[in-house]
């Protein structure tokens, strides 16, 4: 009935629409763009990859304890994971910013794993649905948020490429006190109405 996904799952939704165009009745990719990983989106991933792979303690992935580079990776994830307005509200002073960052990193290091992080940021290395968007036939609704640093609307990529999708439509959720940057994709109350409309539009 519906193929949907958030972030990397959103990337899968674009690819499923191209590779298996008759498999689903509708597609809902969230927090993703129908183009290869490039620009700042590539750069922040590359920083994480380099800081771990160039860390001698990583030892080619065969480590007994987490390499120190994982801390820098966690800091980069914190940096990219929320909009600057919310960060400023949560951490309005130097001391509060350090406290918030330190807490995030400490929590992350309790369960985070360097190889898992590498897999996550490298997995999209060959992602590129751009050349075959015209193959998508099912109604597709792409939803991003205006405060997403990973998929910023200022690039205009989604608005440009959605025109190549036969039954495609794109929605950008405006910045508000309810949005959470890239994490907005998990707040269904912000896009539930759009989903219901998509299901109605694609019903047989």
- How many individual domains? 2
Just name the CATH architecture of the largest domain.
3-Layer(aba) Sandwich
Outline type: globular
Radius of gyration: 18 Å
**CATH H-tier superfamily of the largest domain:** Alpha/Beta hydrolase fold, catalytic domain
Structural class: alpha/beta
Strand content: 5-15%
Helix content: 40-55%
Low-pLDDT sequence parts:
none
Number of helices: 8
What is the CATH level 1 assignment of the largest domain? Alpha Beta
Pattern of helices and strands: EHEHHHHHEHEH
Averaged pLDDT, please? 96
Major beta-sheet overview: 4 strands, parallel
Strand order of the largest sheet: 1-2-3-4
Overall strand count: 4
Task: Assign the CATH topology of the largest domain.
Answer: Rossmann fold
User: For the terminal residues, how far apart are their CA atoms?
Assistant: 10 Å
Tags for this entry?
single chain, 204 residues, Rossmann fold, Rna Polymerase Sigma Factor, Chain: A, 2 domains, 8 helices, 4 strands
List the helices and strands and how they pair.
Elements lengths: L1 E5 L1 H12 L6 E5 L8 H15 L15 H12 L3 H7 L3 H18 L2 H9 L17 E6 L11 H5 L6 E6 L18 H10 L3
Parallel strand pairs: 1-2, 2-3, 3-4
Helix pairs in contact: 2-3, 2-6, 3-5
Overview of this structure, please?
The chain is an alpha/beta fold and 204 residues long. 43% of the residues lie in helices and 11% in strands. It folds into two domains: 100 residues, Rossmann fold (3-Layer(aba) Sandwich), CATH 3.40.50; 83 residues, Rna Polymerase Sigma Factor, Chain: A, CATH 1.10.1740. It has eight helices and four strands, in the order βαβαααααβαβα. A four-stranded parallel sheet has the order 1-2-3-4. The N and C termini lie close together (10 Å). Helix 2 runs antiparallel to helix 3. The longest helix is centred in the middle third of the chain and has 18 residues.
